[in-house]
Amino acid sequence: MAKANTVFTCQSCGAVHLKWSGRCDACGEWNTLVEETSSAAPGGLAAPKSSSRKAGKAEFTTLNAVEDAPTRHMIGVDELDRVFGGGVVPSSATLIGGDPGIGKSTLLLQVAARLARNGLSTVYVSGEEAAAQIQDRARRLKVSESPVELATETDLRKVMSALKSANPDFVVIDSIQTMWSDSLEAAPGSVAQVRACAQELTRWAKKSGAALILVGHVTKEGQIAGPRVVEHMVDTVFYFEGERGHQFRILRAVKNRFGPTDEIGIFEMHQYGLAPAREPSALFLSNEDETSGGTAVFAAMEGSRPVLAEVQALVAASAYGTPRRSIVGWDANRLAMVLAVLEARCGVSLAGRDVYLSVAGGYRMAEPAGDLAAAAALLTSLADRPPPEKSVFFGEVALSGAIRPVARMDQRLKEAQRLGFRNAFVPEGSTGSFEGLTVKPLSRLSDLVDLIGPDPEP
Fold it and tell me: Coordinates of motif RadA KNRFG motif in the sequence (predicted)?
């Protein structure tokens, strides 16, 4: 006879423990074990559930007999269609995560309203807000007249019943952590509830042909809360990023079965909601004319799009025995590597100085091509003079001091030329010719030190 057993489930990774402890042995997180009740048979095996229906068998078909995939639903916003890979795919499930208050609900309400005006049957299910609150936001976004069907419900059984009756084309669930199923004894938002609700909704979307979007909360580390298996269930995973002190937001694709996995969409936050950025590639550049050192423009690649960002550095005398290293928007390990290469290979000593490095606008440098721009910002700050006017930098710095080539060099240079830059300090290997842009290939980091670094001490 089955009996109820008490287990402790990690809310971070989903690992199951037989007894409570302060730290999860699977993922190493602290205070994430929550007591749950599971029905199990003697011996620790799961009790089989009785079913009144007869077990059927799966139907097979040959690959060449499968019908073509339905056409995508074009949203009509270039930044969104770019990230989705050309529009929303029917019978797909998308998971969008982001910090609280970053604008997830605002963006999805705008998308739902636009698709509804385009003739699609659209449903917006909110488990966090009342209908009056959503209507108030819709009026502020100027979309209150759109024929979007609205529901404020957290019971999965009621939500599924309504969806099967309405048979919509596009569904937003805000958020998956608020949904709960009465078939489980776990609390709403727990690992078991999130996993079960996401699986049920995804299975319905695959069968009905609707495009489903799930909103997910994030942990303090920035990862989507709940078990990682939810990210494997869905077809697409997006992260909505941005700094509260800046007006722009980035929608970044980290998984996409129907498009590229490294694309981004850049939006600006206005009083009437989120709008596509007017000049995305130059959004992270400063408009000020720098007359002192400590800045360098980095030509980055985000998917198929070149983006120019400004790297700022400050090198100052240390007031304490241990020099301080403060980094915003870049990896601290890569900064330590660049500082070591400058000292060991180029003779530039920064060991007794405080180093502050920041990427302007809240942009985050994730590719190794930003090494050369960071080194240029450090060198010009140390020399206290700006780099050559209208200069752009990119290249990977090796431990030997060599400057390694990076991908899509000509595309980066073409974008720098379009934005009016005059000088480009890049690795050797570029084959293109760019009118008005002087390309200066570098083979070693010491070459950059000779060009823009501090004067050698006598």
Answer: 255-259
Which residues are CB-neighbours of 442 under 8 A, at least 6 positions away?
372, 395, 403, 425, 426, 427, 428, 448
Alpha carbon distance 442, 458 (integer Å): 26
Domain 295-452's class?
Answer: alpha beta
Per-residue pLDDT tens digits for 231-272: 889 999 999 987 766 778 889 999 999 988 888 898 988 888
Pairing relationship of beta strands 264-270 and 273-276 according to DSSP bridges: antiparallel
Q: Are 452 and 384 in contact (CB under 8 A)?
A: no
pLDDT beneath 70, residues of the chain: 1-4, 38-55, 219-227, 244-245, 287-291, 457-458
* Sequence ranges of the domains in the chain: 3-40, 72-278, 295-452
Determine if residue 429 is labeled as part of a ligand binding site.
Answer: no
Residues in the chain, total: 458
**Backbone phi, then psi, for 89, in 5-degree steps?**
-90, 130
**Class of domain 72-278 as given by CATH:** alpha beta
Structure tokens at 317: 């005398």
Coarse DSSP helix, strand, coil percentages of the chain, rounded to the nearest 5 percent: 30, 30, 45
Q: Is 190 annotated as a binding residue?
A: no
76-122 per-position pLDDT tens digit: 888 899 999 889 999 999 999 988 888 899 999 999 999 999 999 99
103 is in an annotated binding site: yes
102 belongs to an annotated ligand binding site: yes
Indicate the pairing of strand 93-98 with strand 236-241: parallel
Q: Is 98 annotated as a binding residue?
A: yes
395: closest CA among 369, 360, 417? 369
Amino acid at 45: L
Kindly list the distances between the CA atom of residue 310 and the CA atoms of 362, 363, 372, 407, in Å, as whole numbers in the listed order. 10, 9, 12, 20
Q: Is 206 marked as a binding-site residue?
A: no
| 281/294 Cα distance (integer angstroms) | 21
Closest listed residue to residue 189, CA positions, set 120, 276, 128, 255: 128
* CB 435, CB 446: distance < 8 Å: no
Cβ atoms of 168 and 122 within 8 Å: the answer is: yes
pTM: 0.78
Strand intervals (E) in 272-328: 273-276, 295-302, 305-317, 325-328
Contact of 400 with 443, CB cutoff 8 Å: no
Residue 282, burial from CB neighbour count under 10 angstroms (0-12, 13-18, 19+): middle
